[in-house]
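Protein: Phosphoribosylglycinamide synthetase
Species: Dictyobacter arantiisoli
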Amino acid sequence: MNKTMGIENKEKSILLLMTPATYRAGAFLQAAQRLHLEVVVGLNLPEALADYWHVPLGLDFADTTKSVQMIVDYAHEHPFAAILSVDDSATELAAYANAALGLANNSPQASEAARDKLLMRQLMSSGGAPCPIFRSFWLHDDPDWIATQISYPCVVKPRRLSGSRGVIRANDPAEFIVAFERLKRLLLADGASEHETSVLVEDFIPGFEVALEGLLTAGKLQVLTLFDKPDPLDGPFFEETIYVTPSRLSATLQQAIADCVSRAALSLGLRTGPVHAELRVNEQGPWMLEIAGRSIGGLCSTVLEFGSGMCLEELILRHAIGEEVSSVQREEQAAGVMMIPIPGAGILKGVHGIEAAEVVPLITGVEISAQLNNKLVPLPEGSSYLGFIFARGANPPDVEAAIRQAHSCLRFDIRREIPLLKVSVNR
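Structure follows.
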C-alpha cells in the first residue's frame, strides 16, 4: 500500500485513516489521484512497525488521545484540508482530529453515537426517529432472568460490532438464552469484560429492509441512492446478500424513508459527510435500524456511478474538501451487488464456476475476496464474506435475476476442520 501520493496539485492534502485489512483503501486512493490530491495514510499500526515500514503516520486507533496529538503534530508541518476514516474503524478518531484542527466534521459525540447501538437507540428514540423498543443488559446478568423481562420475537445485538456480527433473533425464552450465551462467548473472546460490557435487546420489526446512501451538508441530507434488499432478512442471523438500485418502492415511500433518515441523523447530531443507513419497512412505514457516519462497506460502492462516471469515493472526497456536489445525480442504469454468503465453517480449498458466472448477461464482475486455505467463519461469529458479484442492466429485476444466476454457477469447496486428537504414549 502506498503511504503517500505526491500529486501535481499539492494545494490540498487529505489524511485517510484506515486499517491494513480494509477493502476501501484502493477506491479512495484512486479517487484522490483523479482529483490531484496529496494523500497521507494514517494506518492502524504499532509505532515500531510503522517505523519499520516507513509509514509516516502509524497510529493506535484505540488510543485516541495519543493518535490525535500525533495527527496534530504532523499537520503543523503538513496541513490537511480534510481528515476521513474510510470505514468504521476510525470515524471517532477522525472526528476528534478534525475538531482539534478546526476542520469540518461531525462532533466526536455524534460519531460515537453512530458507532454505539445503545446510544444510537437512546438518541433516536428521544429525537422522534421510529425505532424498535429496546433495553440493555450486562453480560454478567442472568439470561434466565432477562428472558422474563423482554418481549418476543426479539433481537440480541452487540453495541459496537458491525456487519451484522453477533446479531441474533430469538422467538421465545429458550432461544433467547441460547442467543445471549452465544453473543456473550463471542464478546468475551474479543476481549470484552463481563462486568463492563452491555448488550442490546430490542423488539424484532417485521417487514423488508432497505439501505440508503447519503451525504450530509450542514445537516441537510442529499440522497445518493436507495438500495432494495430483495432477500428476506428475518433471522435467526442477518447476513446481507443482494443490494439493488434504483429502488422499486413508490416515490412517496422513498421520501418517507429519506425523512426518517434525516430525523435519525439530526437526533444523533450528524451534520456532514457520508451516511449509510439501514431501515426496515412495513405497513406502518419505515423504521430505523442503524445509521453510520461513513459510506457503504466492502466493495459494494463499485456499483455506484454519479455524473459522468464519478465514483462514490470521489464524490465523498470532493464534498470533504468543500466542492459543490449537491447537483450530482446517480446514473440511470440499474445496478446491483451480492455479498456472497459463507455457507458453512471450514477451510476454503477451492472456488469453481467463476468463468461461468462472469459470462452471465449483465454481470460486470465476480470478485472472490476470501483467500484459499484460510478459515471461513459464518455469521454470527464471522465478519466477512466470500466475495462479491456485480451487475448492471436496464432495470432492477433483470439485475437481480442476473446476480442470482451468477451465484448459482459458483461452487465452494469448504473442508471441515478435523480436530487434532491428543495421543498419550505410555513409556
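Remarks: The two ends are 54 Å apart (CA to CA).
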